[in-house]
Amino acid sequence: MLKRILIFFLSTVILFASLGSISSIEAKANDNAKRNLIKNKNMKARILWYDLSANLENLNTPEKVANIISKTAEANFNTIVLDVKSSTGFVPYPSEYSPHLSTSKNPKYQGYPADFDLIENVVREAKKYDLEVHLNINTFAAGSNQYAEGPAIENQKWQTIVYDVTRVVTDSEDNKYSITGFDITRNSDQLIIYTPENNTISPANRWGIEVKVENGIVTEIIDRNTIGEQEVTVPKNGYLISAHGKARQWVLDNIQINEEIDISQVQSDLRPTSETNATEAFMNPINPEVQQFTWNIISELVTNYDIDGITLDRARYNNIYTDFSDLSRSEFEKEIGQKVTNWPEDIFTVKFEDNKKVTVPGKHYKEWIKWRAANIEKYFEETSKLVKSQNSDVLFNTYVGSWHPLYYSEGVNWGSKNYQPDYEWATPDYHETGYAEHLDFLMTGLYYGDVTIEESDAKGLPYWYSVEGAANLSMEVTNYETFTYGSLYLLDYQDRPESFKEAIRMTESKTHGVMLFDLVYIEMYDWWPLLQEVFTKETVAPHTIPGLN
């Protein structure tokens, strides 16, 4: 603690000297101070994220928690973000509002000690090393579609309603099943089409069924779920249907060899998220019961634990296709002052080009984009007030993707109200939906394998498809209204330790600090010694500096 106080004192002197007189400090505290802090190597947030689901085996006993916290401190991190509400709605502490992990049907969660309070253990150990602890909740995701459990499943009226537009497999008797996607990873209960243009063999695992279709006719059915490993080729004059779980059963029940199959038809419907191919059940952000549910969880965390902050993840809509509930239609019509005649076509329609979905804007599209972002901004404003009213010392922060030009699809504008984006989908007043001013700090995902703009340029990609470019964009969009920490996804650097070190240095040089996602990869790659090479000395997180938030 004494060492950190000394670092803070020396760094503050340097900062103040760079800003000039006291009067100028007061006048520019929310802008120039944060700009100057970028240059101060002693003032950097070093945040390690502990994902709940990924780290169950690392964080299920007091001894394991003590070991991980010790490693975190030795690597010169100063902040922990502990995930305490999974995207399925389960928690690792005694909650009045969410079920405990030990009660889940998910085999991965079963066996987690029913009487174990992860938060209590992490907070106790972290205090030994003067490490901050911020508790993260997956805000509007609260259910597992695969296991049909979680608060969002139990309360279906809470769920988002999805504008579900899909290509479908149609058999000779007109039975249909939705195609999840083309040439992508096949997950639970999904049906994927693999084309010869992108695959020579099926990349799917053995736990499914493969159907070869040549010139529109089924020529072979291989149920790898029963026969085991087998390399399955993709027909050069057709495609391969790959199905798992419920989709596999549909194939078994409906498709036969020599049958004619069609994959050109499209169907659309409005359905709850639990009835789609989505993994998680999302909740409608404007539903008052949903909002109260999230606030109840936040309140019990702030009230019951001696923590430093509350972090929101997935504080957004699922994607561009939500929410099309009756509630959202009614509230949107109030906002624009007229009825939406064709719902949802007046918002947008969907077509397929080269087997990919393309959104075609309707007459209310831009208004809809702004309205959704405004809903999330209002939620952040009210949640910030709630946190501060219960404990003014608890900091309020969030994680988002850094790809701001695309993030409207999640209904989020994490930028400053003073930043006016020049995007074709944005209304002239879209900047009013920015929520950076409600935050004590923001973590943006610089989730790219390329570190420099030069590297992304060489591939013909936008500049912000690199760590450097995404960091620059993050600082531009937030306009220095809050502390902004670039975040790195360690899986992007598997077997590339030198690139990972370069990415850390780049992030610290461009933003107020770095967040690493996630603990599980540090353990997996044994990168604790590597981190000690990069983080050679302790630093002070800027969000801890009094008067600058």
Automatic annotation (TrEMBL):
<dbReference type="InterPro" id="IPR052177">
    <property type="entry name" value="Divisome_Glycosyl_Hydrolase"/>
</dbReference>
<feature type="domain" description="Glycosyl hydrolase-like 10">
    <location>
        <begin position="274"/>
        <end position="397"/>
    </location>
</feature>
<dbReference type="InterPro" id="IPR017853">
    <property type="entry name" value="GH"/>
</dbReference>
<keyword id="KW-0378">Hydrolase</keyword>
<dbReference type="InterPro" id="IPR032280">
    <property type="entry name" value="DUF4985"/>
</dbReference>
<dbReference type="Pfam" id="PF02638">
    <property type="entry name" value="GHL10"/>
</dbReference>
<dbReference type="InterPro" id="IPR003790">
    <property type="entry name" value="GHL10"/>
</dbReference>
<protein>
    <submittedName>
        <fullName>Glycosyl hydrolase family 10</fullName>
    </submittedName>
</protein>
<dbReference type="Pfam" id="PF16373">
    <property type="entry name" value="DUF4985"/>
</dbReference>
<keyword id="KW-0732">Signal</keyword>
<feature type="domain" description="DUF4985">
    <location>
        <begin position="422"/>
        <end position="533"/>
    </location>
</feature>
<dbReference type="GO" id="GO:0016787">
    <property type="term" value="F:hydrolase activity"/>
</dbReference>
